[in-house]
Amino acid sequence: MRVEYDIKLGFKDVMFRPKRSTLKSRSQVSLQRTFKFMHTSIEWTGVPIMAANMDTVGTFEMAIKLAEKDMFTAIHKHYSLDEWNAFLSNAPEGIENNIAVSTGTGENDLDKVKAIINTNTHLKFICIDVANGYSEHFVAFVKKARELFPDKVIMAGNVVTGEMVEELLLAGADIIKVGIGPGSVCTTRVKTGVGYPQLSAIVECADAAHGLGGQIISDGGCAIPGDVAKAFGAGADFVMLGGMLAGHDESGGQVVEKDGKKYKQFYGMSSATAMDKHAGGVANYRASEGKTVQVEYRGPVESTVQDILGGVRSTCTYVGASQLKELTKRTTFIRVAEQENRVYTK
């Protein structure tokens, strides 16, 4: 047993230090990024904010709406091949640039993603998602996926430390999902005691990935637009959102009414709700590691997206970054004990 005593930070522990800027307006900030990937010849340009591959967030409807803003959606893995085919026959032209096909690491998962990709060869992105990316089985699955799909961009995770980022990139992944336990409906840290403060995880994993020519996705922990900006400032190439995009028309789940208010159900993909729905219940060898909550219905996602993009643009103006890719170079974080004046907060 050993203890690491150096401080690890989350989003609530820091704020940006403002710097002199030549920008006159937030409208001068470009949030577009262009990426080349380690293992394929594909080049991607867009706004690198993505909806998480949860069935209450990563829906076909969400993908269409976010693609209008050049944003990205990791489509959840529970759509059937027929549903994929129906979606792609009606989706806007070029949607393949803004979506990923998600998969777990089971044999059935692999068969299904092969069927989807082989039927729709224009799809470019695959997201291999497990809660624990540290297993040898996961690394072997990434290698197998690279052999099967040599011309696709592969996202894989989740991990929180540099050495595992490097291993997964060398195994064939292009982009590594970073985050264990920070999500709003994740209880991994409570149930297992395992985790890593998200800001420090981003800093360490980005350093490891960029050294090899890979990218990372900060997955989880963002509750407000400022957190999204902090993730980018810390070195994240993409930021994945779950709870911030839940509760909208484009999110999964039915609208329910309670005490005169409308709500939508939102749950973690390791929750009892998700496992009851997709796996016939919680297996007798494991515990549920997710919450189920009722999110107040928020209408169309358009205004939430505008709030997020506007917040990140504003961050860039405060530190003098005219492009999103400059933000991390212009970032100095200061340690804080307080984020906001909450005197008028319920």
TrEMBL record:
It comes from Carboxylicivirga marina. GO terms for molecular function: GMP reductase activity. This is GMP reductase. Residues 9-338 form the IMP dehydrogenase/GMP reductase domain. The active site is at 186 (thioimidate intermediate). Pfam families: IMPDH (PF00478). The lineage of its organism: Bacteria, Pseudomonadati, Bacteroidota, Bacteroidia, Marinilabiliales. HAMAP family: GMP_reduct_type1 (MF_00596). PROSITE patterns: IMP_DH_GMP_RED. The gene is guaC. Catalyzes the irreversible NADPH-dependent deamination of GMP to IMP. It functions in the conversion of nucleobase, nucleoside and nucleotide derivatives of G to A nucleotides, and in maintaining the intracellular balance of A and G nucleotides. Keywords: Metal-binding, NADP, Oxidoreductase, Potassium. SUPFAM superfamilies: Inosine monophosphate dehydrogenase (IMPDH) (SSF51412). Belongs to the IMPDH/GMPR family. GuaC type 1 subfamily. K(+) binds at residues 181, 183. Its EC number is 1.7.1.7. The keyword Acetylation does not apply. NADP(+) binds at residues 108-131, 216-239.
